[in-house]
Amino acid sequence: MGFFDGYNVATSGMSAQRTRINTVSANIANAQTTHTKDGGPYKKQNVVFQELLLDNKQQQNKSLIDTKKDISGLRGVGVKEILDSKAAPTMKHEPNHPDANKDGYVAYPNINPVIEMVDLIEAMRSYEANLASFQTQKTMDTKTLDILKG
After folding, report:
1. Closest by alpha carbon to 95, among 105, 86, 87?
2. H/E element, 23
3. Residues 6+ apart with CB under 8 A from 92
4. Which of 13, 63, 90, 122 would be a feasible disulfide site paired with 130, CB 3.0-4.6 Å?
């Protein structure tokens, strides 16, 4: 394990959660958007994470040096993709709305603001946990350097 591995894992987690926070915020902001540039209502977006590993060449070199079984190939978390929800829009009868269909129904995004707020809080807490991990790593490294200096 390298000197900066703890920092890399924590910062990758913070970056991934920041993307999630931005995506959930966009979902909340567009919960009442009935018309987008693509036509139709806004579609809720979901972030899909993936683990980041050492590439194969680095992993092979690492296995030649280190014979212990461990998870040292893990390098953090990243955003694999941002998917549009497949949920059908919610139809509300509003005949005077400019986006109403011929029957007077308007298609609204199928977004529950309460669920989105819970997701937002969860993403914020995950971000904070990664930040605490980063700060703990920094404190340990500072104390180690102080010991080596003294």
Report:
1. 105
2. helix 5-29
3. 105, 106, 108
4. 13
Q: Are 34 and 97 in contact (CB under 8 A)?
A: yes
pTM of the model: 0.81
| pLDDT by residue, tens only, the chain of 150 residues | 677 888 999 999 999 999 999 999 999 999 999 999 988 999 999 999 999 886 544 544 554 455 444 555 668 899 999 999 999 999 999 999 999 999 999 999 999 999 999 999 999 999 999 999 999 999 999 999 999 987
Going by DSSP bridges, is the β-strand pair 90-93/105-108 parallel, antiparallel, or unpaired?
Answer: antiparallel
The answer on 65 and 21 residing in a single domain is yes
Domain residues for the domain of 91 are 33-43+87-110
* Both tokens assigned to 138: 């920094």
Cα distances (Å, whole numbers) of residue 134 to 1, 87, 140? 16, 37, 10
Helix/strand/coil for 99: coil
Q: State whether 73 and 106 are in the same domain.
A: no
